[in-house]
Amino acid sequence: MGGLARILIQEGHTITGSDKAFYPPMSDQLQELKIEVFEGYEGDLPAADLYVIGNALSRGNPWVEEILRNHYPYTSGPEILGSILKKRRVIAVAGTHGKTSTSYMIKHILSFNNMPVDYLIGGISSSSGHSADNQNAEIFVIEADEYDSAFFDKRSKFVHYHPDIFVINNIEFDHADIFDSIDDIKKQFHHAVRIVPSNGFIVYQKEDLNIKDLLELGSWSNTVPVNDPSSIDLSSDEAIITIQEEEFATSEFPFVGRHNFLNAMMAMQAAKLVGVSYKQSFEALKQFGGVKRRLEIVHKSPTHIIYDDFAHHPTAIRATTQALLKKHHNKKIGAIIELASNTMSSGYHDQNLLDAPVGLHEIFWIDPNNVLETEKAFPTIEIATKELKKIIMALDIVVIMTNKNSKLIKDSLLEAFDA
What we know:
Layout: H1 2-10, E1 16-19, H2 26-32, E2 36-39, E3 51-53, H3 62-69, E4 74-76, H4 77-85, E5 89-94, H5 99-112, E6 117-120, E7 132-133, E8 139-143, E9 148-150, E10 153-156, E11 165-168, H6 182-193, E12 201-205, H7 209-216, E13 222-226, E14 231-235, E15 240-244, H8 245-250, H9 258-272, H10 278-285, E16 296-300, E17 305-309, H11 314-327, E18 333-338, H12 342-345, H13 350-355, E19 362-366, E20 377-378, H14 381-389, E21 397-401, H15 407-418
Parallel strand pairs: 1-2, 3-4, 5-8, 5-11, 6-8, 11-12, 12-13, 17-21, 18-19, 18-21, 19-20
Antiparallel strand pairs: 6-7, 9-10, 14-15, 16-17
């Protein structure tokens, strides 16, 4: 919603906003935009010509009830954004994992090659400093979430975005609070597939069986499979360069891990469809600044490193773990993992979740619902960090994994190093 606020300001609107709490990096962006914000929903409802209601709010919220009671005009974020995107060439990046990183890679590739591009992405890149921009460029890159649009519109957000190029990184079960099964998720993805025009493209991971099932439901657009190979051919009109995955992982690229190798291939393929060669994309990615909270180094000293990562699904936790083990193979690595998503905290993933970070030296879990059967699971951030701090000096690296605000965890760990 913070990124959408920036886009609407650039459209000429005056914006105010409210939430339960505001924290970095988005709170910094809102402050820079000089947006008046209200914490909580107990005060007077601010006057407005239109209320954009986020999907975190539902019936029973005081301001929602007042809007409905007085018949004030309202809409959802995806719907108002969709009205802006109708006249753009939209590259929408979807999937359970890698949406943010892949979206920013595409945006960076196009900007690096002097192609004007607007964007709305659910994170902040170190290279852009913002999560959104709206300069009326022809191409618009958007992170396309499968979560529902609002309490009054249970369709996935991406249905509103009118994609011309629909990038599907992967499909797994997630969001147990709104989906009952993987088939429910495929159904929502197919709603988006149905609206990609016949001259548009669906770029997808060829080896993902759930995407294979999805496309068998019907597709009316150009489909572009991206293989999961050990190398990628970086061809241009004048040169051919082949880089092996191992070289990619150990090269000067500012990101690590096989999952980012695959994200990069998807981004390069999407960029190719709007006129950027693989070789041009490859050169651009050498200068990619990364994405905040995607294996971001938030503390580095001669003896210790702390990473902050958004991983909130067993597959993402496993990918982060393998990336760190590969990069720091001779170091003692610990993790503190918060079960913050509805799916993780429900116990749905069970043993698969416990197995995801196998190989790390120490693993501490923040498990408020007591769903994990392990001695290293603790009910609160405070207790978990207290226990981790007892052994933290014996570790070389600590990675924080949560899709919620990581500041409390990070600050607590930094206290241990400063003590």
